[in-house]
Amino acid sequence: MNGGDDPAPGLFGRRRELEVLGGVLGEARRGRSAVLVVRGEAGIGKTALLDHAVAQADDLQVINVGGAESEAELAFAGVHQVCAPLLDRLDRLPPPQSAALKTALALAEGPPPDRFLVGLAVLTLLTDAAAKHPLVCVIDDAQWLDSASVQTLSIVARRLRADPVAMVFAVREGEQNPDVAGLERLPELSITGLDDSDSRTLLATTMPGPMDERVRERILAEARGNPLALREFPRMANLPAFTGGFGVAGHGRPLSRRIERSFAARVSALPADTRLLLLIAAADPVGETAVLWRAAALLGIPEAAAAPAETAELITVGGRVRFRHPLIRSAVYEAGGSADRRRVHEALADAIDPVDVEHRAWQRGRAATGPDEAIAAELERVAERARARGGVAAASAFLADAAELTPDPVERARRALAAARAKLDAGAPDAALALLAYAQAAPPDLMRQAQTELLRSQIAFAMHRGRDAPALLLAAAEHLRELDPPLARETYLEALMAAVFAGRLVWAEDSAPAGMARAARSAPPAPDPPRAVDLLLDGLVLRFTEGYAAAAPALMRAVRQFLRDSDAGVAGLRWYGLVGRIALDLWDQQSWDDLAARQVQVLREQGVLTLLPVALAYRAGVCVHAGRFDEAAALLEESGAISQATGAPPPLYIEPVLAAYRGQEERALHLVRTSLHSATVRGEGRVIPIVQYAAAVLHNSLGQYREALAATDWAVEHDDIGMYGYGLGERVEAAARCGETAIAMEATGKLAERADAAGTEMALGVVARSRALVAQGAEADGLYRAAIGHLERSKVGVLQARAQLLYGEWLRRERRQGEAAEQLRQARDTFRRVGAEGFAERARRELVAAGVVVQAPRASAAHQLTGQETTIAQLAAEGHTNSGIAAQLFLSARTVEWHMGKIFGKLGIASRRQLKAALAERNGRPGLS
Prior knowledge:
Layout: H1 15-29, E1 34-40, H2 46-55, E2 61-66, H3 77-83, H4 95-104, H5 115-129, E3 135-140, H6 147-159, E4 165-172, E5 188-190, H7 196-206, H8 213-223, H9 227-232, H10 239-243, H11 255-268, H12 272-283, H13 289-298, H14 306-311, E6 315-317, E7 321-323, H15 326-335, H16 338-351, H17 357-367, H18 373-388, H19 392-405, H20 409-425, H21 429-441, H22 446-464, H23 469-483, H24 485-502, H25 513-520, H26 532-545, H27 548-568, H28 576-585, H29 589-606, H30 612-625, H31 629-646, H32 655-661, H33 665-682, H34 687-701, H35 705-715, H36 724-738, H37 741-758, H38 761-773, H39 777-794, H40 797-813, H41 817-834, H42 837-849, H43 867-877, H44 882-889, H45 893-907, H46 915-922
Parallel strand pairs: 1-4, 1-5, 2-3, 3-4
Antiparallel strand pairs: 6-7
Helix pairs in contact: 1-2, 4-5, 5-6, 6-31, 11-15, 12-15, 12-16, 13-16, 16-17, 17-18, 18-19, 19-20, 20-21, 20-22, 21-22, 22-23, 23-24, 24-25, 24-26, 25-26, 26-27, 27-28, 27-29, 27-37, 28-29, 29-30, 30-31, 31-43, 32-33, 32-34, 33-34, 34-35, 34-36, 35-36, 36-37, 36-38, 37-38, 38-39, 38-40, 39-40, ...
């Protein structure tokens, strides 16, 4: 297509892209949500396309914002830009949302806001504003948004569904910002270079009149279809040298750097006052016009100095200060010179409202001429303020700046270690590692050296998830033994935790859990009274040196103490996952449930989104065993959405367990394969017994007992904390059904040792079920009845139904058909109600074999509900309003209304009053049909 046929003057060769953007705006006009991520290299035309879209949206509300490269250190700065036009609506939000957003935007003091409440508040602001008039939110240069903002806005984008709101992000390719990974898997438009014909047309419009052919061809070759390069290269002052081949020295530079040089040359021709005014604008990532004029006045620059820059099409000054292209900003800042940059930052610090302490401190840090303790201390204070608002990434950046400006080497090392810890918490282990150089440069200090070594080992664990981390943590613990005994004990526990995490995939035997436990015997004695971490360490040392039975009482005390600490708000966040695995190992369903719920709550409150997906998946595991499959699916869906938003690898190991219990054979086996591969690559040995347990459950549900037995070979190969006992339970069932009595008896013996030590209803129920499988006559009958009783009291509905299924199968073989039918009927109804289709079909076949006339299961419309639709339907049936459901599921009320319409259609009902009956029918409660 030639540029002359293009629908937008100056946007040569972009008809397809304009149509896509037009479609996004059209969706909003029609009352539906649309999201688009526009990707491409610098200068490729992203900003021009977005500007054109904004110009075409004069019938819509428009929020037009952009990231700035220096903005990453200002927590929620991007969210502030998006919300600024809507702040008059803040008090209309539900109080929890309003309080969270005000705290995030530093408009009010308060505890760290729940990141999801902040996101829900932004979603509510946008959708409420769009209720009567569609809205489009354009976010240019999203790669430069601060971490908190890009996470929040990407999650908001995923939650838009049935609202008249469009969101368009532009992302520059090649920028190293891991946060923008959260925008992946959103609808995307990739912008590439113009073809040769359009490139020539654009070049001709830029330089009308004759042009030497060598000049033209050289420009075309260098620009590679990049529109900004095609416009800027002809303006280069050294064009003759460039086109004659003498400019080849810059040929190896990235195209964006060469375009920046062209802009810098144009800026250098402007009056001195104009150049300095441009530098003020480039040095302020927020872009408030009032701040620009106040800073200019402090430097004696008149407002008229802006005119030459606007005439040169470098900048526009309106409600906000905007550079025509981000490369102009970077070119201006780089060309400014260090002395002028410091003058400008100092003027900006004085011009900014004193209430905006973070922005002022950031500017003062850049105005410093060298080490300055007063500025460093101010940066450290605002780092704490940023952390209190949930801005972990911003806090880490402020602390890093504070360390760099600290004159005293000892104090610099202290701040550098604090910055490195914050960088690690923010999910930036590479940056954390780089900061350790400051600590190493300080005068020798044994305590600091030990702390540095500890942090280095924690960084290694974060980066490699196992492998060499246990040995590094053990070395750090041994160095701390005399210097800080309480911290040494915590570090020994970390080494053990890393070994448990790596499991069978550790590189050396000494790094395995048993090796770490032997080494931890030399830990300093616990204080009196012992902390939860002390009880955990001593219990785990016993677990891996003396065995399960010897350790069970100590570990039970540790779990109870940790739960008390959790209730008091003093439990260490890093230990939740380990303590949860211990509770699982002890068959303590209630503690497992409480820990999983509390971990999710704490992570949400602190805004630690990098860890939240794992916690949500862990809680989903609790729900699977409790028979709450729909809740588990909703948690896993949320976990996946946050993983996408943060760029963290999604935790896959609970998904195969849920798919197995649902009888989804193809999906479950695929998830088992992919999870095993991923775990092996990342060194996560703890995942292997979980996914092999999933495979065993699947095969047992389908009556594929040989395959189930083979899966348990892996599941029980190592005595991993957590799933080992559950793998034994599956092994007994598979071996008994295969006629492998010796294997079943051996597994039952190991299971009995654990159950007797744990003593919980769940443990006693599973071991009674296993003993029944290898018993005969009246003994088997009594054991089955005991198993069902224990499991009923433990409130693990799926395991109770499985015991009833096995008992019914045994009764049928004993020719007690009536009793068999009753047990099988109860099992089948439970399986159908929760969605365990494989086990439900196995129970149905047994009912048929018992002489009961049953129909094949019919696929009702309700079974076509998605996981989210099922959750919404259940909440609505319980009496929750649309707004209440929206708040629980992080959706807009209008999206809930849209889902309710689909639910009504699928269920064939017309009102909420019919929901309970429709869902009951779906869950297979009435009759045997």
